Amino acid sequence: MIRAVAFDLDGTLIQTERLKAQSYAQAAVQLKPASLSEQVVIDAFKDFVGGSREEVTKGLLARFDLEEAARRRMDEFSASAPWQVLARLRLQIYQEIISNEKTLQDAAWPHNMALLHQIQAANCTLGLATMSHCDQVERALHALQLEDVFSFIATREDVENPKPDPEIYLLLAKELGVSPHELLVIEDSVSGVRAGLAAGATVLAVATPLTQKQLHQSGLLDEEFIVDGPESLQEKMANLFRKFNE
């Protein structure tokens, strides 16, 4: 039986992965303006969605041969390694992007937001599990007027191990007072799906343009648990509740 529903934030409720892709692209182009375009970096970002900041940064650094350009700016960013230059430059740009509340509001996924409010109206217990840091989460929830929706919010500060480790979903289930097997997780990335499955939860993946290919190629979920478009979300969600609550 499903007794609680847990939503991811980045990429699921709000298109922050798209905004992050833009910030990585702008940072990479700043390091190597003569030979890179933002679109090329955004396309490459798809291969790293759901990874940690270090994993994504190191991946892009290697993909576009940015190490030497980053090394030259290590003192400027008080960095101990070249990848930290790209990470800190990218973070500066990202903070500027998300400082605009209207930008966050415009980045919300309407279909997932509608599902969230539908579940809330049905008085089902709701939780949030995100690898974003607390200040970023507070800013996003305020912009989307979701401050009072979730019974428990777990952020990067609350766990030692990031997704795909199951720690955050095990913590969420405990705080919501349910067994992990009674938890339905709504995710958008392979990393998040792995975390939910490893915790023992049922996982529904709502694909985005950045994650759709990875989700299908991963083989982690049967097709009935992957939503490729908003038009099939309600149907697949209803089927899941029928299946697990009969």
Describe the structure.
It is built from twelve helices and six strands. By secondary structure, it is α/β, with parallel strands linked by helices. The chain has a six-stranded parallel beta sheet, with helices on both faces. The radius of gyration is 18 Å and the shape is elongated. The model has no long low-confidence stretch (mean pLDDT 94). It has two domains: 4-15 and 104-245, Rossmann fold, CATH 3.40.50.1000; 17-100. 51% of the residues lie in helices and 10% in strands. The longest helix has 17 residues, at 82-98. It has helices at residues 16-31, 38-45, 53-63, 67-71, 82-98, 101-106, 110-121, 134-143, 167-176, 190-199, 212-218, 233-245; strands at 4-7, 125-129, 152-154, 183-187, 202-206, 226-227.
Q: How many domains?
A: 2
Number of strands: 6
What is Rg?
18 Å
CATH fold-level topology of the largest domain:
Rossmann fold
CATH superfamily of the largest domain: HAD superfamily/HAD-like
Strand order of the largest sheet: 3-2-1-4-5-6
Report the span from N to C terminus. Answer: 8 Å
Architecture (CATH level 2) name of the largest domain: 3-Layer(aba) Sandwich
Helix count?
A: 12
Q: Secondary-structure map with pairings?
A:
Layout: E1 4-7, H1 16-31, H2 38-45, H3 53-63, H4 67-71, H5 82-98, H6 101-106, H7 110-121, E2 125-129, H8 134-143, E3 152-154, H9 167-176, E4 183-187, H10 190-199, E5 202-206, H11 212-218, E6 226-227, H12 233-245
Parallel strand pairs: 1-2, 1-4, 2-3, 4-5, 5-6
Helix pairs in contact: 1-2, 1-5, 3-5
